[in-house]
Specification:
Layout (H helix, E strand, L loop, with lengths): L2 H14 L8 E4 L19 H5 L6 E5 L2 E3 L3 E3 L3 E5 L5 E4 L6 E5 L3 E4 L2 E3 L7 E5 L3 E4 L2 E11 L4 E4 L2 E12 L3 E9 L2 E4 L5 E5 L2 E7 L2 E4 L8 E5 L4 E5 L2 E3 L3 E5 L5 E5 L2 E3 L3 E5 L3 E5 L2 E3 L3 E5 L3 E4 L2 E3 L3 E5 L11 E2 L4 E3 L10 E4 L45 E8 L2 E7 L6 E9 L11 E5 L3 E4 L8 E11 L11 E5 L14 E2 L11 E7 L3 E8 L5 E10 L2 E7 L5 E4 L4 E4 L8 E11 L11 E11 L2
Parallel strand pairs: 1-2, 2-5, 3-6, 4-7, 5-8, 6-9, 7-10, 8-11, 9-12, 10-12, 11-13, 12-14, 13-15, 14-16, 14-17, 15-18, 16-19, 17-20, 18-21, 19-22, 20-23, 21-24, 22-25, 23-26, 24-27, 25-28, 26-29, 27-30, 28-31, 29-32, 31-33
Antiparallel strand pairs: 34-35, 36-37, 37-40, 38-39, 38-41, 41-42, 43-44, 44-47, 45-46, 45-50, 48-49, 50-51
C-alpha cells in the first residue's frame, strides 16, 4: 500500500470514530439549564457554540431538535451530531460569511444548515479533514468548501446555492475526496455541482446532480481542474452546460456506470486520458466533445443531437458502443421531485452489455447505466408495455388509405395493431382490428371507399410478451367522389390529448399543423389565468410535441421535430387547460393571411 493511501485510511478511521476517542459527551438543548460542562440533557447548553467553546479533542456534542441561529467556529477535534437532519437547524441567515468554520478534524452529521443567503457566503468551510454525513445544506454561495484538505461526504442534500455545491482542492497528491449517496440540485445561473482544483484523488459515487433552473447558462455538473486521478461511478448528472467538464487530469479519469443526460454536453474536456465505460449519454446536444485522449467504449448513446465531436484528432465510437433506446422504466426529465426511474426494463439492450471486466453486484456482466457495476443495485427488471406509436398520418394513394407512423424504439417490439372505425374518439377493441403487422406503413381498403364517408384510425404496439401499448393519436380521413374521380384527402389541424394524463411531474402536448403559421400553445388554470406560454413562434406544417413541466427548464425531442420550453415557478395540483392558436401565413388565399385559422383547447390534470 502506498504511504499516502495508508495515511488517508488512518485519518479516515480517526474521523469516523472520533466519538470513540477518550473524551466527554456534551449536550445542547433549548430546554436545558445551560450549566457547564453540559454533560446531560438537563444541564445542556442553550447554544452550540457555547458548548463547543469548552470542548477538548475527542469530545462528542449532541444537539437536540430546534433552531440555533448562530455561526459556529470549531477549533477542536469533535464529533458534532444533531438528532435529525430535518429538525436540528443551524441557521446562519443574515449572519457571518461562514455558517460553520472548521479549523480542526471534525465529524458533522444530522443537521439542517442554512447559509447567510448571499453569493459570497459559505455554509461550511473547513481547513482540516472533514467527515460530513446526513446533512441538508442550502441558501448560500458555496455549500461545502474544503481548503487544501480531504473530505468524506455521504448522504448530503444540497439545494439553493448560487455558486458551488461542493468545492475542494488538495493542492497536492496526498489526499482523497469521497462524495457518495448525495443529492445536489441547482437552479441558479452558472452554478456548479462539484468543482475541484489541483491534485487529489476523487471518488464520486452514487450521487444525483441536477440543474433544475430556468436559465440557459447552467454551469457544470462536475468540473475537474487538475486532479491526479478521478473515479466517477454510478451517478445521474443532468441538465448542465457540461454534465462533466475536464480542464485537465494529471493521470487518468474513469467514468463508469453513469447516466449523463439533457445537457449541452455529456462530457467536455481535453488533455490526458479519460476512459468512459458503461455510461448512458442520453438526450444531450453533444454526447462527448473531446480530443484523442478519450477512450469511449461500452457506452450507450441515445437521442443526442450529436454523439461525439472531436477536438483535434477526432475520437470515434468504441467497438462496443451502441446507439439504441435504453428502455428506462420512466424516462422523464430528471426533476427535484426525483420521480423519474432510470432502472432498465426487461429486454433493455443495456442489460449485460457493459465492459466484460466489470461485474454487477450479482456477479453477472455489468449493465450499462447508473445501476450497473460493483457500486450498482440488484433489482428485478420490469416488463412494461411499449410506448404508444407516434405521428400517425392518413392519406390516399391509388384508391387506398395509406397509414404511416414512426417506428417504436423498444428492443422487444413485436407487432402493431391497426384499428378502424367510422366515428371519432372510438373505443379500440378486437372488433375494430383491421390488421396486425410488423411494418410502420399500411394500405387499407375500406369497404365503402367509393362512398362519401369518414374513417378514423388508431395504432397500438405489441411487444414479444404481448403487452399492448396505449393507442396512438387518432388519424382521420374523409373520402369523397365516384369511381372515375380520385378521392379527396382532407388534412386537419389537431390539438391532441396530452400524455400521460393525469401527470406528475411533466406531460407532453402533441399537435399537428396542416400548413405553416404562427403558433401559440398556452396553459391556463380553471380561473382563466395564464400559467405558461409553451410555444410562441412561426412553425412549418408537421407534427410537434412540447413538454409541459411546472418547475424546471425542459427540452422535449419529438419524433422529427424538437421544441424547447423554459421552466417557471411551481404550480399546484388540479385541472389545467391547454390551448392552441394558429395564425395563418404562407400560401393561404388573400384575406386569410394573418388571421386565426385554428384554435382548440383541452383539459389535463396534475396530481402531486
Amino acid at each position: 500500500m502506498k504511504p499516502k493511501y495508508f495515511l488517508f485510511l488512518c485519518l479516515s478511521f480517526l474521523i469516523f470514530n472520533s466519538s470513540l476517542l477518550i473524551g466527554t459527551v456534551r449536550f445542547v438543548s433549548k430546554t436545558g439549564t445551560s450549566t457547564p460542562p453540559y454533560t446531560s440533557w438537563q444541564t445542556a447548553a442553550d447554544s452550540i457554540q457555547k458548548c463547543i467553546n469548552i470542548c477538548v479533542d475527542g469530545d462528542t456534542v449532541y444537539v437536540a431538535n430546534g433552531i440555533y441561529t448562530e455561526n459556529l467556529v470549531i477549533n477542536t477535534q469533535i464529533f458534532l451530531s444533531g438528532l435529525s437532519m430535518d429538525s436540528t437547524v443551524i441557521d446562519g441567515t443574515g449572519l457571518g460569511r461562514y455558517t460553520i468554520d472548521i479549523n480542526s478534524i471534525t465529524q458533522l452529521e444530522n443537521f439542517r444548515v442554512f447559509g447567510k443567503g448571499t453569493v459570497e457566503s459559505w455554509a461550511i468551510r473547513s481547513f482540516q479533514p472533514l467527515n460530513i454525513n446526513s446533512c441538508n445544506i442550502s441558501d448560500c454561495g458555496l455549500a461545502v468548501g474544503l481548503v487544501g484538505v480531504p473530505c468524506i461526504m455521504n448522504k448530503v442534500i444540497i439545494t439553493n446555492v448560487t455558486s458551488y455545491g461542493f468545492g475542494g482542492g488538495c493542492f497536492s497528491d496526498t489526499c482523497n475526496y469521497f462524495i457518495s449517496n448525495s443529492v445536489i440540485i441547482l437552479n441558479a445561473e452558472n452554478t456548479i455541482g462539484i468543482t475541484t482544483t489541483i491534485g487529489g484523488y476523487y471518488h464520486i459515487t452514487n450521487n444525483i446532480i441536477l440543474f433544475a433552473g430556468t436559465n440557459s447558462n447552467s454551469g457544470s455538473g462536475i468540473s475537474f481542474g487538475a486532479p491526479r486521478k478521478v473515479y466517477v461511478n454510478n451517478n445521474l448528472i443532468s441538465g448542465f452546460s457540461s454534465n462533466i467538464f475536464f480542464d485537465t487530469v494529471q493521470d487518468t479519469a474513469f467514468i463508469i456506470n453513469n447516466i449523463l443526460a439533457y445537457g449541452r454536453r455529456g462530457i467536455l474536456g481535453s488533455y490526458y486520458i479519460v476512459k468512459t465505460n458503461n455510461s448512458i449519454l442520453s438526450k444531450n446536444e453533444v454526447g462527448i466533445e473531446y480530443d484523442n485522449k478519450l477512450i469511449s467504449d461500452y457506452n450507450l448513446f441515445w437521442k443526442n443531437s450529436q454523439d461525439i465531436i472531436g477536438i483535434g484528432t477526432s475520437p470515434t465510437y468504441g467497438d462496443s458502443d451502441r446507439i439504441i433506446d435504453p428502455m428506462f422504466v420512466k424516462d422523464t426529465l430528471p426533476n427535484p421531485q426525483l420521480d423519474f426511474d432510470y432502472h432498465l426494463q426487461a429486454f433493455s439492450p443495456a442489460i449485460d452489455k457493459g465492459d466484460p471486466s466489470i461485474l454487477d453486484v450479482d456477479g453477472s456482466r455489468s449493465d450499462i447505466g447508473m445501476f450497473g457495476g460493483p457500486y450498482g443495485q440488484k433489482y428485478t427488471y420490469q416488463d412494461l408495455a411499449p410506448k404508444p406509436p407516434r405521428n400517425l398520418t392518413a392519406s390516399m394513394d391509388s384508391g387506398l388509405v395509406h397509414l404511416k407512423w414512426n417506428k417504436n424504439t423498444e428492443a422487444d417490439l413485436f407487432r402493431y395493431r391497426v384499428y378502424r372505425d367510422t366515428v371519432p374518439d372510438f373505443i379500440y377493441d378486437t372488433t375494430k382490428i383491421v390488421a396486425v403487422i410488423s411494418d410502420t406503413t399500411f394500405y387499407d381498403d375500406p369497404p365503402q371507399k367509393f362512398i362519401s364517408g369518414n374513417y378514423y384510425y388508431k395504432i397500438t404496439a405489441i411487444d414479444s410478451a404481448y403487452h399492448q401499448s396505449p393507442a396512438s393519436e387518432e388519424a382521420h380521413i374523409n373520402i369523397t367522389g365516384i369511381p372515375e374521380a380520385p378521392p379527396i384527402v382532407v388534412e386537419h389541424y389537431n390539438l391532441l390529448q396530452n400524455y400521460p394524463n393525469p401527470f406528475n411531474p411533466s406531460t407532453t402536448i402533441p399537435y399537428r399543423l396542416k400548413a405553416p403559421g404562427y403558433v401559440k400553445v398556452m396553459v391556463y388554470n380553471l380561473l382563466g389565468e395564464q400559467v405558461k406560454v409553451l410555444v410562441n413562434k412561426y412553425q412549418s406544417a408537421g407534427y410537434y410535441e412540447v413538454l409541459f413541466h411546472p418547475t424546471a427548464t425542459e427540452r422535449q425531442s419529438a419524433e422529427g421535430k424538437i421544441e424547447f420550453e423554459t421552466g417557471y415557478g411551481d404550480i399546484v395540483s388540479g385541472i389545467y387547460l391547454y390551448r392552441i392558436e394558429v395564425i395563418g401565413e404562407g400560401n393561404l388565399p388573400a384575406g386569410r393571411q394573418g388571421i386565426p385559422v385554428f384554435t382548440d383547447m383541452k383539459k389535463m390534470m396534475l396530481v402531486k
